Amino acid sequence: MNKNQDKNQENVTRLLDNEPVGKTVQVVRVMGDGAFRQRLLEMGFVRGAKVTVLKNAPLKDPVEYMIMGSHISLRHSEAAQIEVTDQDAEFCDMEDAFNGIVETEVAGVDPLADNVLRVVLVGNPNCGKTSLFNNVTGAKEKVGNYGGVTVDSKEGWFSIGGRKVQLVDLPGTYSLTEYSPEEMYVRTYIRDNHPDAILNIVDAGNLERNLYLTTQIMDMNIPLVVALNMWDELEKSGDKLDIEMMSRLLGARMVPLTAYNGHGVKEVLQATMDAIDESEQETLHHNVNYGTLIEDSLKELGDMCPELDRYTVLKVIENDQHAIQLLDGKDNADEVKQTAAEMRQRIERDYNDDIVSIITDLKYGFVRGALAEALTPNPERTVGETKPGYSMDRLLTNRWLALPILLVLMWLMFEATFTLGAYPQEWIESGIGWIGEWIGKAMPDGILRDLIVDGIIGGVGGVLVFLPQILILFFFISLLEDSGYMARAAFIVDRVMHRVGLHGKSFIPYLIGFGCGVPAIMATRTLENRRDRIVTILTVPFMSCSARLPAYLLLVAAFFTANQGLILMSIYLIGILVAALTAIVLSKTILKHDKTQFVMELPPYRKPTARNATIHMWSKGKQYLQKMGTIILAASIIVWALGYFPRHEGQTPQEQVENSYMGKMGKAIEPIVEPLGFNWQMGVSVLTGAAAKEIVVSTMGVLYTGEADATEESTSLKEKLQTATKPDGEHVFNPIIAYSFMLFILLYFPCIAALAAIKREAGWKWVAFEVVYTTGVAWLVSFLFYQIAIRL
Ligand code: GDP
Ligand code: MG
Fold first, then answer.
1. 347, 384, 477, 714: which could form a disulfide with 52 (CB 3.0–4.6 Å)?
2. Closest ligand (CA of 146)
3. Residue 491 phi, psi dihedral angles, 5° rounding
């Protein structure tokens, strides 16, 4: 036991999970081990930190807490890992371990030969890195008030004082511990690319937590400038920060900044250049002073492996596997490991705690100590009181109103996307049709004309028709992300999503999936955990997208007289059910995940800007056209060619399709689809529908009526389907076959556009999995349904 705890053993500790709403308590310790515990410590759940229970989500789980001025949502099961005690219980040693800084001498670095510098942006999620990046480089990257918006790095350029500087926007991280993919990415990037300086962006309104990362960066001994972003908010809050004193205490340059309007950008860049220039001479580096015992250990171990920076040496003492791996291949590796282990034991014995908590506590102690000197909080504010940026929460996450509001907002977004989007979509369709007709008239008959008119222009049309919806949808998503509402949506529905092993953040992609799978898959970008992302991507295609609706409408109208609405709805529900079961199975088997992902920060609400939303909209639109357009176009041409060749003179369109390669394939697969109640015409429709599911209807139109422009409303097609008979005189369709066919259309092979999106987000391996899996499931479900239904 720690000496401070000895005095107060009678203090009762409880679990955070059992604390009532409104209560403020102090953290004693976080139980458990591994990544999850580390994440909680880094988010501020360290000994003595005050936590206030703010509210339960409307479905009771998760719970929102306030710690160190930021709002964090934890599930009950996670809060049960945190031991707490009454506020101001004596044990809590808030007299902080501020020992100031130590200085390390570092040899000067050679100025770069080509005079090109590299500066990296590092900081917590949502602290304004991308805003600064865009401002400085003139880039138009997406900013967002929602974690996980920047998943990979972005590079841009700027010039200052005649020098060219490359600026790199890295993903947001709370720490560099290499537990999460983002942390790993940032840490590896810094290690491999040796930037000339690190520009650490911190949220000035939330320094305690933000500066924790700074203490880690300081140990890397790379020239460092700390930009105190959101300075506008700090000033508004009434808190006072003595920047000069703070810089001195931390031993790092600090510059105020308001990234989104550009105030202070020049000063920040100049300070960065000064820091780089200074590092060209031999300089003193400033590091957190961890106290004599740890400092001596650091020095001793550092001397044994001079090529490692202080950060890594400390990590070796902490028994961090990534750092220890770096020792491999060194002559004295075993000796170093042995010494580090002894040091660790000694430190743990002395501090009576485990090493990870000790170091985290010391780092937070350092930050708190410095803040106690330099920051004067607005005296009118008390612990547990939320900042003004959270006032909307009263309404938006209200126990009774949260779900209705969420549903209304989602409905609005949906209506706007798919109803408003239908107009430009029609214009594009008729524009394409008009161009096709014009070229058709201008060119002589022949294969080339057919290729251009039906293959290429048709294919381009297939790409372009989605564009309006993608633009509108991402405009709305950007508004939701930027305002901070998206994090609340995840908070509200997390309980439901948790049931199937996912995070609340998966909700939005699923919802979008009912409109179109392509933007839905693109929207999974905001999921931090890769496994969650893949599970979501693979299950989104089961949400019945709007392209499948024409086929349902045709079949329902033709074969069901009563309960048409219910029948249609049952199809959608089956899609959801299959998605849920798939998600459960995947997240329990091949995509099993660890626990780091569940902790989520709820950022303050911010006013979204039209500029941001527009930028996001265009970047998604461009991404769609560039990356997916090519695949969709190529695939459309292939499908066209399969239906077009071989050519025979004097055939009706019907005979042409029947004798084409596609027709032959349809006939070849007839034995496979027969057990589902399908004939070869339906087999062909399913095959052509692989390009895009709305083609199912037009193919049936060609095969049954000879009209290429059949729609779900054509009475002639409906009647033909109702009266079509097999050679033996039996009807081709009946309600059971129609339903089985609808099930198949719902579940099988996502369209090529969706696969192109899956390829981009998850890679070919998962495309292959998805093709096999969805088609397998579709076959099985239709088979079971048909075989059981005809026997009833
Ligand atoms: P990143 O996650 O670090 O890249 O942060 P972003 O650049 O995406 O910004 C997160 C949110 O903070 C966005 O809503 C920005 O508009 C907002 N923001 C960025 N800089 C400032 C600032 O200086 N003041 C205020 N009030 N908001 C800012
Ligand atoms: Mg960003």
1. 384
2. 1
3. -60, -40
* DSSP character at residue 222: S
Q: What is the distance between the alpha carbons of residues 83 and 525, in angstroms, rounded to a whole number?
A: 34
Q: How far is CA 231 from the centre of its chain?
A: 27
What's the chain's average pLDDT? 85
For ligand 1, whether the C-beta of 232 sits within 6 Å is yes
Q: What is the pLDDT of residue 5?
A: 46
Predicted confidence at residue 4, as pLDDT, reads: 47
Is the distance from CB of 537 to CB of 512 less than 8 angstroms? no
Cα–Cα separations (whole angstroms), residue 457 to 359, 430, 607: 63, 12, 42
Tokens of 693: 């599911």
C-beta of 76 in contact with ligand 1 (< 6 A) = no
Report the pLDDT averaged over residues 18-44. 87
Please report, for residues 182, 183, 258, 566, the alpha-carbon distance to residue 153 in angstroms, rounded to integers and kept in the order given. 10, 12, 22, 48
Question: What integer pLDDT is reported at residue 768 of this predicted model?
Answer: 96
Closest atom of ligand 1 relative to the 127 alpha carbon: 3
pLDDT at 782 over 90: yes
Model pLDDT for residues 422-455, shown as the tens digit of each residue:
899 889 888 888 888 898 888 888 888 888 887 7
Helix ranges restricted to H, 291-400: 292-304, 310-317, 321-325, 333-351, 355-374, 393-396
Whether residue 299 is predicted with pLDDT greater than 70 in this model: the reply is yes
Angstrom distance (rounded) from CA 110 to CA 400? 63
Q: Which two tokens stand for residue 282?
A: 């031999």
**What's the rounded Cα separation, in Å, for the pair 537 and 506?**
9
Token look-up 């250049």 returns: 273
Cα dist from 259 to 22, 29, 117, 283, 459, whole Å = 34, 36, 22, 30, 43
Nearest CA owner, ligand 1 atom 14: 145
pTM, full prediction:
0.83
Nearest atom in ligand 1 to the alpha carbon of residue 147 is: 2
What's the confidence (pLDDT) of residue 446?
82
Tell me the two tokens of residue 343.
């040091």
Long-range CB pairs of 645-653 (<8 Å, 24+ gap) are 647/447, 652/706, 653/702, 653/706, 653/708
Instruction: Verify whether ligand 1 is closer than 6 Å to residue 144 (CB atom).
Output: yes
pLDDT band at 657 (very low <50, low <70, confident <90, very high): confident
* Nearest-5° Cα angle at 645, 639 to 651: 120
Which residue minimizes the CA distance to atom 5 of ligand 1? 128
Instruction: Write phi, then psi, for 53 (nearest 5 degrees).
Output: -80, 115
Fill in the amino acid letter for 604. Answer: P
d(CA 228, CA 647): 70
Output the six-digit token pair for 129: 């890195």
pLDDT at residue 95 is higher than 70: no
Residue 233, ligand 1, Cβ within 6 A: yes
Residues 29, 84 contacting (CB under 8 angstroms): no
Residue 730: the pLDDT is: 86
The proportion of the chain whose per-residue pLDDT surpasses 70, expressed as a percent, equals 91
- Say which amino acid occupies 655: E
Q: Which residues contact 275 (CB under 8 A, 6 or more apart)?
A: 197, 223, 224, 225, 253
Three-state DSSP at 122 gives strand
Contact criterion met (CB below 8 Å) for 646 and 655: no
Distance CA 506, CA 576 (A): 13
Amino acid at 50: K
Torsions phi, psi for 790 (to 5 deg): -75, -15
Q: Which of 140-144, 536-540, 547-551, 623-627 has the highest mean pLDDT?
A: 536-540
State if residue 264 touches ligand 1 by the CB under 6 angstroms criterion.
no
